[in-house]
Amino acid sequence: MQQDNPYKNALQQLHTAADLLKLDKSMLDILSHPKQEITVTFPVRMDNGEIKVFTGYRIQHNNARGPTKGGLRFHPEVHIDEVRALSIWMTWKCAVVNIPYGGAKGGVVVDTKKLSEKELENLSRAFTQAIHTFIGPQIDIPAPDIATNPKIMAWMVDEYSKIQGKFTPAVITGKPLDIGGSEGREFSTSWGGVFVLKEAIAKLGLLNPTIAVQGFGNVGSFAAKFLYEEGYKVVAVSDSGGGIYNPEGLNIHTIFEVKKKTGSVTNYPNGKKVTNEELLELPVEIIVPAALENQLTERNAHNIKARMILELANGPTTPEADGVLEKKNILIVPDILANAGGVSVSYYEWLQNLKNEHWTEQKVLQRLEKLMKKAFDDVYKVKQEYNTTMRTAALVLAVKRVVEDIKKKNF
Ligand code: NAD
């Protein structure tokens, strides 16, 4: 296994929760292995007429609580162990917020920056054909993740619907509004994160905290924007080109314009350039990793100065870093809680599709706020009960719920 292997990390976390819950070995075995792992290779026609073969994955970890659910990532570094880990985290995430889904994840090994629009469409449709027998509204429901978006989801729904011979919007969430997408889905992960962050800030009694956000994609950019609009001081943001820092605070609206015009947040004029590594070590109260996995490791954990970490990315902290950060008494709001707003609104989208309804953004956000606050409270209670970290508490809560459902269904 590669170093900082996310699957290894996910299993290590599961073992920690299993020990506390005194799970028997057979249950631990069931939970350690994804139920179904699909690897597909599929040909795609390029604009020059050439055919290229791509590799894709869909991994369904556990469906005891309902159909499996999770995003699709199009990235050159997609690796089967990463997808496995992400599918396991999806099972826990859905259980933490108590929605009736199991966990899955998928991905295609591809650099979308090197594809034309037509090639991206051909690839999305070909991948749908390759996995269509394994997905469905009551089986497994994909959604967007890194480098995938509503437009790609629309192509996939269209392709799936053609194969089924009927329009089937509930097979995929994160769709554009006009084909059954939900109001608020685009911002839901970020909103969910902000709702739990407010709870955590209140618990720690932080006054006017300074915040650094790593990653300015779908999740990081809107989290920075909402925090800024709610009056919080966002002092640093970054994208793959690096970051920008101003201890007096950044104007996030201007950064949106700069990013749109120039392609990178680093061209914002009123700040100092920092690397993605430096951003995490800034003297701020809160850091928000919202980019890739394994950003906080044993190499940099000792240098973290923040008092709280809101994990909007999946798996940004390695277990070794977790240990170091725990000793430093840094509160980590773990990914399976912090970024569960996305899958929660995906659940609302699926419900709307099944019932042929369309909810207002206000209704979606009200339900989301209630759900995220309840999840934070549930996790916090377990944290106190077991005298443990928020991560372990969230895992314990999730594993317990999944185990109860596995037992109920006798598998
Ligand atoms: P995205 O592709 O929209 O954005 C990713 C961001 O990370 C971009 O700003 C990119 O420039 C930046 N980035 C890429 N490589 C980097 C590097 N080496 N260092 C620093 N930054 C880098 O993806 P997203 O949808 O915003 O997802 C971000 C994270 O949030 C992922 O871990 C994803 O799994 C997680 N997540 C997303 C959702 C969702 O609804 N989109 C839900 C839950 C969790």
Keywords:
411 residues; alpha/beta; Rossmann fold; 2 domains; five-stranded mixed sheet; 12 strands; binds nicotinamide-adenine-dinucleotide
Structure description:
With 411 residues, the chain is α/β, with parallel strands linked by helices. The protein folds into two domains: 144 residues, Leucine Dehydrogenase, chain A, domain 1 (Rossmann fold, 3-Layer(aba) Sandwich), CATH 3.40.50; 151 residues, Rossmann fold (3-Layer(aba) Sandwich). It has 14 helices and twelve strands. Strands 9-8-7-6-10-11-12 form a seven-stranded mixed beta sheet, sandwiched between helices. A five-stranded mixed beta sheet has the order 1-2-4-3-5. α1 runs parallel beside α3. Nicotinamide-adenine-dinucleotide binds next to α7 and β7.
What's the helix and strand layout?
Layout: H1 6-21, H2 25-32, E1 36-45, E2 51-62, E3 68-75, H3 80-96, E4 102-109, H4 117-131, E5 140-144, H5 150-164, H6 188-204, E6 210-214, H7 218-229, E7 233-239, E8 242-245, H8 252-262, E9 272-274, H9 276-280, E10 286-289, E11 308-310, H10 319-327, E12 331-333, H11 335-338, H12 341-355, H13 361-386, H14 390-409
The structure holds nicotinamide-adenine-dinucleotide.
The site of nicotinamide-adenine-dinucleotide has 24 residues, from helix 7 and strand 7.
